[in-house]
Write a structure and sequence with these properties.
By secondary structure, the protein is α+β, with helices and mostly antiparallel strands. The protein has one domain: Trna Endonuclease, Chain: A, domain 1 (3-Layer(aba) Sandwich). Helices cover about 40% and strands about 30% of the residues. It has four helices and five strands. The chain has helices spanning about 5-10, 15-35, 40-55, 100-115; strands at about 60-70, 75-85, 90-95, 115-120, 130-135. A five-stranded mixed sheet has the order 1-2-3-4-5, with helices on both faces. Helix 2 packs across helix 3. The longest helix is centred in the first third of the chain and has 22 residues, at about 15-35. It is globular. Mean pLDDT is about 90; it is low at about 1-10.
Length: about 140
């Protein structure tokens, strides 16, 4: 499933635009947590966040499929929770805390996707836990 193109897609690709975009994503996530509270499984938060992002006019693809290549050969496949405006990966958790394995997962997703920014959002606490992971060369 291809993400929708919106007017935001072209403007959000600059560094300043990506910062604005991540701010909008985080704002939508906070709205979801405020509305639902803690205690639900990850999929509930994912669906609610997709709804909020759509209301905010952002193009979002849910469970976006990606492939892992090694030496020019496809060696694996995975799905990212959300791809927003074709530029930011969003990985959701509903855990007691964000763990190092969650960070590693996001960094691997970035390497495989060719993108450089992933938001790791944890809905498992009363206050949204946010990690902004950037892939550096």
């Amino acid at each position: 499933m291809e993400p929708q193109n919106t007017l935001n897609t072209r403007t959000e690709t600059t560094e300043g635009g990506v910062n604005l975009l991540t701010g909008r994503i985080i704002g939508c996530a906070q709205t979801v947590l405020h509305g639902l509270g803690t205690g639900f499984v990850e999929k509930v938060y994912e669906r609610a966040l997709v709804h909020e992002l759509g209301k905010a006019g952002l193009a979002v693809s849910q469970q976006y499929p990606m492939t892992v290549r090694y030496d020019g050969v496809v060696v694996g496949e995975f799905t990212v929770d959300l791809l927003v405006e074709q530029s930011v990966l969003v990985e959701l958790k509903a855990a007691k805390a964000i763990d190092d394995i969650h960070r590693a997962q996001c960094l691997n997703y970035l390497k495989a996707s060719g993108l450089y920014l992933c938001l790791l959002l944890n809905f498992g606490k009363p206050r949204l836990e946010i990690k902004r992971l950037v892939l550096t060369q």
